[in-house]
Amino acid sequence: MHSVLSGEAMKGLVRSFRYAFNGMAYALATQRNMRVHFLAAFVVIFLCTVISINVLQITTVLFSIALVITLEMVNTAIEHVVDMVTSEFHPLAKVAKDVAAAAVLIAAANAVAVAYLVFYDKLNPIHWRTLRTLLQPPFIGVVLIGVLCLMVAVSGYAVHLRLRGKDVHTSG
Ligand SMILES: Nc1ncnc2c1ncn2[C@@H]1O[C@H](COP(=O)(O)OP(=O)(O)OP(=O)(O)O)[C@@H](O)[C@H]1O
């Protein structure tokens, strides 16, 4: 227990969060599809804060968004590893990239289906959420606004990476 809370362990933890944050911003700065997913996710999470849907529906939406974004990151990582191993045409390189892209496509199709099923009867007419439901337990407002703030922070750092332009291999 003591070693878990030691200064060195804390520094290591902070360092690994920083690397993960860099990875998110890098994927956003370099991958057009990632920017599309991020923008769509931002709009949908914002909708969850203003439209009256229940906690289970919000959980499903957040899970679907996380699945798309994490798979897009894994896809980016696989593309980079393949490109590092070979710049030649190789059938296995094609399989690796195509299968990774297919994983993202399935997650994105699932997210569209989830968004449709959750929102289809809430938009016409719009079922607005009351401020009270955002602020009472389980504090939906805090969770959603926290996620939106994280997304803004990652986007800000991605813009910084693009402006700096160093070590950024854009694609898509
Ligand atoms: N080294 C390779 N050998 C064989 N096929 C490849 C190779 N590199 C890419 N491909 C094929 O070209 C497709 C596009 O690859 P590329 O690396 O350009 O991805 P991308 O268009 O940047 O992907 P994304 O849309 O995710 O950014 C792959 O899905 C694969 O079918």
Automatic annotation (TrEMBL):
Domain of life: Bacteria
Residues at which substrate binds: E72
Active site (record annotation): E72 (proton acceptor)
Membrane topology of the entry: Multi-pass membrane protein
Stretches that traverse the bilayer: 36-55, 61-78, 99-119, 139-159
Gene3D superfamilies the UniProt entry points to: 1.10.287.3610
Molecular function in Gene Ontology: ATP binding; kinase activity; metal ion binding
CDD domains: UDPK_IM_like
Record localization: Cell membrane
Named cofactor requirement(s): Mg(2+)
Amino-acid positions noted as binding ATP in the UniProt annotation, renumbered to this chain: Y19, E79, E88, F89, H90, K97, D98
Pfam family, one: DAGK_prokar
Main localization, broad class: membrane
Positions contributing to a divalent metal cation binding: E79
Annotated GO biological process: phospholipid biosynthetic process
Listed GO CC annotations: plasma membrane
Assigned protein family: Belongs to the bacterial diacylglycerol kinase family.
Descriptive protein name: Diacylglycerol kinase
Biological source species: Sulfoacidibacillus thermotolerans (Acidibacillus sulfuroxidans)
Origin organism lineage: Bacteria, Bacillati, Bacillota, Bacilli, Bacillales
